[in-house]
Amino acid sequence: KAKGVTSNPSEAIATAKTPAEQQRVFGSHDLDTIQDEDLKAMISWEGLTSNQKQVVESELAVRELRNTTDEVSSMFTTGGRSKSTGNFMTGITQYVDAIGSAVKSKNIEVAKQTIGKFNNWVETQTTKNDLVQEGWNLYTKNKKTPEESARLAEIQSTLRTKYNMGNDQYQPIHNGAKKLVNNIANDTQALL
Asked: Could you tell me if 148 and 138 are in contact, meaning their C-beta atoms sit under 8 angstroms apart?
């Protein structure tokens, strides 16, 4: 901790008025200990460089995406329209109900189609989970070979393009992705 900087991030941010004080606060607190509203305030600081402001903006973007992983995980079971993306997702419960209704009404063709869609979803989710787990294992490995680094880059690209994970500001597999990795593993396990 830098001299003259309080251990309370919110207090330190509220009292940092000069560029020098702002630099001290930025360098004295891990971003993950700072609340969202305080990070937003830091973006307007004159004492931060554009690179430092980009780091703060990236942290906010990652947090927003972490929150959406909870929403997706919940929708995985129940289905529904995503508040964050507006996309509709069919959940496990909806598949089970649709298959049950089709069987009950003796509409075997609809039951087969729904089972086929569910099986495709399971296959897609399992493949995504395998990629995420492999990517996380490579990402967290200390000394990667050039081949491992290339494979990680390939996985990151596939997760972004095929599975709509990540965006231009961050890679799908990153320092804050452990919760996402665990949620995807848990969701996949629920299907098996």
From this structure: yes
